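Subject: Sanity check before I submit

Could someone independently write out the structure tokens for this chain? I want to compare against mine line by line before I put it in a report. The sequence has 284 residues.
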Amino acid sequence: MARGAQIKFAVEDSWLRNEYITKRRRNSDLCAELGCSMPTLLRILKRTGIEPRDDRNAAVHHGRRVRFDLEKAAKLYVDNEWNAERIGELLGVNASTILRRLRESGVMIRHHNDTKRGKPNHRRIDLDPQLVALEYAKQDADIKSLMAMFGVTKSIIRRAFDAAGVETKKRDRDGAKNPNWRPDLTAEERALRRDSAKQTKWRIQVYERDGYKCQRCGDAQGGNLNAHHVEAHCQNTKDRNDPDNGITLCVECHRGFHRAYGLRGFGRKQLAEWLENYRTKNAA
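---
Independent answer below. Compare away.
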């Protein structure tokens, strides 16, 4: 059609309004019925005073509603705990339709795993708890030996322990059984070491008693404290791990004490003298 030519399709305005506005027929359907193109239809609508619409946003879809026994589907879903796929196969409807209609009717839809959630695994292995407890009570028995004996994993053994009320044995880590054991050290060298569990416990006890604060200058900075032996560590072996034989000092005060009195031969008298000199100096 030439530009500016007259539209050759004679369409009554009332009919077009009824079909397009009232019935909301799609643009493509009207084009097929009138035998015109889409631009021609849009010009006819404009001539008639009708605002064209975008069918992608305003289209009305008339889907066929599938009929099935909704009450039976709800009973199978709620009471028998069937899933939607199984119900759909029985009633001849797809799973999405089943779920949509159940939701519209007020049925609470489960998560897709809720049907099997909470049920025991069909491959679960359970041992006789009393038998496991009896074997574990033997002197040399441990969890690893029970795992080898029954051919199961640690979690299965622990589950049997829980059922029988058995407490696991405390591992003996003293002496040579400790993973930090040094076989190359002599007994004397080992006694002088300060990284033992007893020394660690002693250090914490001294810190806690002194409130994690230097007893000379009052420094309470974390990581800046030492536990000082009141009587030399290398000389008083009897009270080496006694908290009463310790005092909390900061790094600088600790170094200052040993600069003044050396690394051995000092005791409570020297410590009291050193602390008193500090208080007198600062009081003045």
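---
OP: Matches mine. For the report I'm noting this point. The two ends are 114 Å apart (CA to CA).
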